[in-house]
Amino acid sequence: MASGIEVFTPVSHTLFDPAEIISKNGGRPPLTYQSFIAIAGEPPEPVLEEYSELPPVGDTGEYELLPVPTVEELGYGDISQEEIPPFRGGETEALRRMKESLQDKEWVVKFEKPKGDPSAFLKPATTVLSPYLKFGCLSSRYFYHCIQDVYRSVRNYTKPPVSLTGQLLWRDFFYTVSFGTPNFDQMKGNKICKQIPWSENEELFVAWRDGRTGYPWIDAIMIQLRKWGWMHHLARHSVACFLTRGDLFIHWEKGRDVFERLLIDSDWAINNGNWLWLSCSSFFCQYHRIYSPVTFGKKYDPNGNYIRHFIPVLKDMPREYIYEPWTAPLSIQKKAKCIIGKDYPKPVVDHETASKECRKRMGEAYALNRLDSNSSKGKPSNLSRRKMSHGDQDASNSSIAKLLKTSRSE
Ligand code: FAD
């Protein structure tokens, strides 16, 4: 105001105001989707004022107006040979894409997220509006209300959490919880995050990051991430589970960092929220349910077209070996011009053994977390009583800390 400038900060990046939801919930963020929806109600209408042009910038005083920097000025060098993601930026494209998705009314009203095909890449199974929502090219309220318009024109339609509006509510759910949770983006000091003694193994982590695990389904997804910056939600599930509680037992924060850097829809609240979820660190706790890096993708794409597209070295591998090329006889590998261990890596872990070990370690970590939460509530569990009788007054915290320390030095 001192400079004669009125500052107005509306909340419009999300459907709801996270602070308002938290306040309606007694000062704490609702930690389940259902409780979030119960509090949230209907979102406000989008602002429908249209501007034909931006107002003039006005007097910028001593500041110089600079043009938009070029790709080279941003430090990317020559990108002419690189595969560019097939998604164009901008509001016009966002609105076009949204209209294209919504004009198929039957698709909209029958939308059920868990039923989508994660391997569909020529025509993705979902809207691919996340990058536009992230950059503000599309208003989530406008999108929400356009979907409601479609619903109004029919009798039956799917409902949250699986419906299309349900997806936008997931977005707001994670925004609200992340806004109200200190240290939401880390394990330590994050009250809603299970303390899990993740392993450190740089070699395995790099193999996952670079799409060289030897599991074609996992590698194709990681290569799509690198080339397109976008993958289907269930594809993200597969690779996040594989890195953390499913196979490699590596910290979700490491996977989060890779996604944060490479996703074109990279969003702090949603990315961290989903990594917490997939690693069974928060929100979801059925750690025994592990995605198979072989059979899960095969269900949707038995011929492995998705793999053949993103991993061309496997393009001539016969259908029966495309998800497990290491099982192909050498003569077949030779014929497909892809020798496993030379042209394409051998699996970095044996899924059966690794997933069994992960379940065991998750079970142990969960037991310690239960112990910790019981003792912080002042209700010692049997296990903590036993530990305390051995003279350890602070059994829970120190045992978790010790476990963390041991695993770090593995
Ligand atoms: P649609 O199914 O068409 O959904 C419409 C919109 O709803 C999306 O654009 C998105 O804004 C929102 N939405 C959908 N699913 C979710 C969800 N599970 N959580 C929150 N919002 C959702 N999404 C991001 O936008 N940014 C991220 O950084 C991100 N990181 C993720 C990390 C992991 C490990 C996982 C498992 C998921 C992540 N997601 C992230 C959520 C989800 O995968 C994407 O939002 C979705 O795949 C985007 O595609 P779409 O626009 O076609 O989705």
Task: Characterise the protein shown here.
There is one protein chain. With 410 residues, the chain is an all-alpha fold. The protein has 2 domains: 11-41 and 86-180, Serine Threonine Protein Phosphatase 5, Tetratricopeptide repeat (Alpha Horseshoe); 182-375, DNA Cyclobutane Dipyrimidine Photolyase, subunit A, domain 3, CATH 1.10.579.10. Helix content is 47%, strand content 0%. The chain contains 18 helices and no strands. It has helices at residues 18-24, 33-40, 91-103, 105-110, 130-134, 140-152, 164-179, 202-209, 216-228, 233-246, 252-262, 268-278, 295-300, 305-310, 330-335, 351-376, 382-389, 395-408. The longest helix has 26 residues, at 351-376. The relative contact order is 0.10. Mean pLDDT is 90; it is low at 380-410. Residues 113, 126-130, 133-134, 167-168, 170-171, 174, 232-233, 236-237, 240, 259, 263, 265-267, 270-271, 274-275, 278 line the site of flavin-adenine dinucleotide.
Number of helices: 18
So what's the overall shape?
Answer: globular
Low-confidence stretches: 380-410
Q: Rg to the nearest angstrom?
A: 24 Å
Report the structural category. Answer: mainly alpha
What is the highest CATH level, the class of the largest domain? Mainly Alpha
**What proportion of the residues form beta strands (DSSP E)?**
under 5%
For the record, give the distance between the C-alpha atoms at the N and C termini, rounded to a whole number: 57 Å
Helicity, as a percent range: 40-55%
Main sheet record: none
- Based on the coordinates given, report the CATH architecture of the largest domain: Orthogonal Bundle
Return the CATH topology of the largest domain. DNA Cyclobutane Dipyrimidine Photolyase, subunit A, domain 3
Mean pLDDT: 90
Number of domains: 2
